[in-house]
Amino acid sequence: MLTSWNPLLAMMLTAPATFALVAAVCKPLSGRAAGRGGALVAGFGFLAAAAMAVNVGREVPVTATLGGLGVTVDRLAAVLLLLVFGVSTVVQVFAIRYLAGDRRAGWFTAGASLLTSASAGLVTATTLIGLAISWTIAGIALCLLLGMYWHLPAARDGVRRTATAFVIGDLALWAAVVLATAHWGLVDLLALNAADLAGPLVPLIACLVVIAALSRSAQWPFHRWLPATLAAPTPVSALLHAGVVNAGGILLVRLAPLVSTDAARILTIAAGAATLTYGAVVMLVKADVKGALANSTMAQMGFMILTCGLGLWAATIFHLVAHGFYKATLFLSSGSAIAQRRRASARPPARAMSRRRRALTALTASVLPALALYAAAQAISLAPGQHTAEQALLAFAWATGATVTWGWLTRRRGIAAGIAAATLLFAAAIAYLGLITAVGHFLAPSLPTPTAPAALAWSVAAAVSAVLAGLAVLRRMPATAIHRAIYARAISTGYIAPSSPTHLTGARS
Q1: 10 Å Cβ neighbour count for 21?
Q2: What is the pTM of this model?
Q3: Which of 18, 69, 129, 173 has the most CB atoms within 10 Å of its CB?
Q4: What pLDDT shows up at residue 362?
Q5: Are 90 and 15 in contact (CB under 8 A)?
Q6: In this predicted model, what pLDDT tens digit does every residue of 223-253 receive, in sequence order?
Q7: The NADH:quinone oxidoreductase/Mrp antiporter transmembrane domain covers which part of the protein (predicted)?
Q8: Residue 504: pLDDT band by 50, 70, 90 thresholds?
């Protein structure tokens, strides 16, 4: 045990919560001063997490005790702490200018700091009770942030929907905690072993944990709360990705030995696949940028939950962290995206492609990413017998590459454009597969053993890919009665009706 790291760990976890209290009760710290202080505290946490990531990569985990509850930083926790404090730092720095002059800026800083501290506790808690406490505090902090503009009916509606989903999930989690504690005593997450978990209560406890994860990550049937939060300021939408909307994946990974029962896995796979498809469909028909981003987040969280159901824990963490940073950035740049779209709409339309050229472009966009991924796998010696289940997920990487290639080739035509696309795709595939391999090796000592049969992983990936491919083809087809009916149905399904009649009377201060 490295005792010299213990004070740093304790300070990193408690400083945001302490500053949240200061920002909430001290009026002189409102506005810019509070924002700068919150960003400074989060930045300190990020630097401390980076130092610990380097340390635990070479030596043993760092442990400490806070208020009678144990916390530890191993390789998994170090990576997740980088996500939590990294996103929090960037968002709070952005909010200093975004909320300049807003009388609720101090409230945002207090809520953001509390959420950061709770999310950090979630990824470092060593007991099931400590994890559940951090989980609940993070949900409360988010509801407080969503209620910043309580005078707006849409904001109140978002808080009601979010609180309802979170209460259901939290009750499920605490029921699992009570049952597990009564059955096994104080559950130590570091010593959690599937071989030691037996009894008729195990499937019930596992399903309760999965329900909690589904509610927090906006999975079906709890998917309505996330799109209803868009009345909150943009920094709040970005801060969701600092261990809140993606907390479902964190929970399932940390309790992997407990949720590996057949019933829990079936529930997880079904909910993840359904939400992935639903979110992708609604995202394609959303006209507003933030609405499309929210449904895209829902779909991506469906993918994350799906990998949890398949037992592909390294893929879950890689996707969770990459998506958290990427989507938080997209939310913060949503205003710039709207301005860019307006400028693009003012330009003359691109020259239409003939049917033959469109078919050739589609074929090229499909083949080039597949060849690039295959060549990259051979170049980095990713043998076919290794990571067989994880390789099934490359179908989604191929879909992303095909979409990007299609966009490139519709703007740049000719052989030179194809050669440039192939070169860039190969370089990107090398970087992608190399990064996945490196992250997997780094996290391996802290992750459970993958449990997915290769056949199951390939089957689920193929089924979801086929559905998404069918939707993409349907979107490109000329308008027909079926096309218009599906489009209208997707629009109506994605519409979030107010949960109370107060929207008819207008906002009241």
Answers
A1: 12
A2: 0.85
A3: 173
A4: 72
A5: no
A6: 889 888 888 888 998 898 888 899 999 999 9
A7: 125-400
A8: very low
Instruction: Report how far residue 230's alpha carbon sits from residue 487's, in angstroms, rounded to the nearest whole number.
Output: 23
State which amino acid sits at residue 166: F
Residue 393's pLDDT band (cuts 50, 70, 90): low
Question: Could you write out the DSSP letters of every residue in 308-329?
Answer: HHTT-HHHHHHHHHHHHHHHHH
Q: Where are the alpha helices (DSSP H) in 125-186?
A: 128-146, 153-184
In degrees, to the nearest 5, what angle opens at C-alpha 103 toward C-alphas 102 and 105? 70
Backbone angles phi, psi at 226, to 5 degrees: -65, -50
Q: 221 - beta bridge partners?
A: none
What gap in Å lies between CA 482 and CA 472, rounded to an integer? Answer: 14
Structure tokens at 40: 């400074």
Q: Give the model confidence (pLDDT) of 112-163 as tens digits.
A: 999 999 999 999 998 999 999 999 999 999 999 998 888 888 888 889 999 9
C-alpha distances (whole Å) from 473 to each of 262, 359, 439, 469 are 35, 12, 34, 6
Paired strand residues for 385: none
pLDDT at 509: 32
- Please, how many CA atoms are within 13 Å of residue 15, restricted to the half-sphere of its CB? 18
Residue count (the chain): 509
Concatenate the DSSP letters of all residues of 382-419 into one string: --TTSSHHHHTTHHHHHHHHHHHHHHHHHHS-SHHHHH
Q: Which residue bears the tokens 């999965």?
A: 210
Judge whether residue 454 has pLDDT over 70: no
From the list 73, 233, 63, 72, the residue with the least C-alpha distance to 144 is: 233
Amino acid (one-letter) located at 214: L
